Amino acid sequence: MTAIRASVFVGTSVDGFMARADGALDFLPPGGGEPHGYEEFIASVDALVIGSKTYDVVLAFDQWPYGDKPVFVLSSRPLRDAPAGAVVERMSGEASDIASQLAARGFRHLYIDGGRTIQQFLRAGLIQRLIVTHVPVLIGSGVPLFGPLDQDIHLTHVATRQYASGLVQSEYRVGNEKGHR
């Protein structure tokens, strides 16, 4: 089986929430704000793995944001129809099984998105790169980026970048400390 890489590129409030409790992303800058590496990142991946709640939120966008990249939606229920031109497939199962199936199909670099999906892949030790962009706002509650862990997940800081709008982006390698996942 071909080795597969999985990365996260996500925006959060400074207090660590990816979305409001109802899934709203209204605190994020319109259109993603100023350029901060997303276009380069999305060009580096060959497929996305997202949760069904994230899929439902993205369906409400004015435009499908992933072009013709394959999007695998983790769900045990049927999905709402994808927009014309979108390549969407429903999958279910454990993160390790999903990663193995996608690697067997020739995918090499996955973009993991959605609160529970990111948490599931992190707990399974499948994320290698984590890029978190903090938006200068506190929202108090919502969908947390991180959840409970069975053990510490060690990160190696790669870079921190700041942008004129106040965005602060930190990039980490996951589990590269000797003796840790």
Please write out the topology.
Elements: E1 5-13, E2 17-19, H1 38-44, E3 47-51, H2 52-59, E4 70-74, E5 87-91, H3 95-104, E6 109-113, H4 115-123, E7 129-135, E8 143-144, E9 155-162, E10 168-174
Parallel strand pairs: 1-6, 1-7, 3-4, 3-6, 4-5
Antiparallel strand pairs: 2-8, 7-10, 9-10
What is the chains' assembly state?
single chain
Helix content: 10-25%
Strands in their spatial order, largest beta sheet: 5-4-3-6-1-7-10-9
Strand content: 25-35%
What integer is the average pLDDT? 92
SS field, number of helical segments: 4
Enumerate the spans where pLDDT stays under 50 for 5 or more consecutive residues: 177-181
The CATH C-level name is Alpha Beta
String of helices and strands: EEHEHEEHEHEEEE
Largest sheet: 8 strands, mixed
Organism: Noviluteimonas gilva
InterPro entries: DHFR-like_dom_sf, RibDG_C, Riboflavin_Biosynth_HTPR
Protein name: Dihydrofolate reductase
GO molecular function, one term: 5-amino-6-(5-phosphoribosylamino)uracil reductase activity
How would you describe this protein?
It holds the Pfam family RibD_C. One of its GO terms (molecular function) is 5-amino-6-(5-phosphoribosylamino)uracil reductase activity. With about 180 residues, this protein is of the alpha/beta class. The chain has a single domain, classed as Dihydrofolate Reductase, subunit A, CATH 3.40.430.10. About 20% of the residues lie in helices and about 30% in strands. It is built from four helices and ten strands. The protein has an eight-stranded mixed β-sheet, with helices on both faces. The protein has a two-stranded antiparallel ribbon with strand order 2-8. The longest helix is centred in the middle third of the chain and has 10 residues, at about 95-105. It is globular, with a radius of gyration of 16 Å.
